[in-house]
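Worked example 2:
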Amino acid sequence: MRLLVTRPEPDAHRQGEVLAARGHDVVLSPLLAIAAMPEVDLGLDGAQALIATSRNALRALASHPERAAAIRLPLFAVGDATAKEAEGLGFGAVTAAAGTGEMLARLIADTLDPGDGPLVNLAGETVAFDLRSALAAKGFTVKQPVLYRAVAAPALSEEAISRLMAGDIDGVILMSPRTAAIFADLVRRHGAVTQASRLICYCLSAAVAQAVRPLGATTIVAAEPREEELLALISTEAASS
């Protein structure tokens, strides 16, 4: 299949290599650029654990002056990929949820006691799920330092728009609601709505599919919100076509 990859770097190249190894023709057009904010105070004093809902937060932590203190605390990750990133950073006690913010909130509430101290959610400037409020409703105090900004791309890559206009792309991989919304907006700006409506949008979750639905394209949602599930879905679709 001819697939458009929209993840930020370095994940775009990594995902593209996986897809190319499976025989797909890959076009890269990262729709977000990650900018770390190393001056932010993490607020670790008295914290009982950290929370990470994305690998980007952990990559920002890697160059943060409070990294050494942070990795001594237990960390709760939204899923396996984020957990692996944390372990690679040096965290010794990492617990992974099954891939969604709701599942992560339940895991933390079932595991920790609000009376043992606040939690620190390592966040980006924009969050897809309000984990802070979900945990506050269960009695937790959650600090939420913003470690990075995700800046929207001003345009699709030249190759992406050229091939999209030529009808030379079969599908687009969308990993977050914000990325899906940016893709829909850029398609409109490029005057490529008709061409994009013929694509298959491979979406990590129902929320992602909802964000791209205004384009009128076909949306297919992974059974579970994990990259491995989405890539397996693409392989199944490719085999059946």
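The chain has two domains: 2-31+153-240, 34-150. The longest strand covers residues 146-152.
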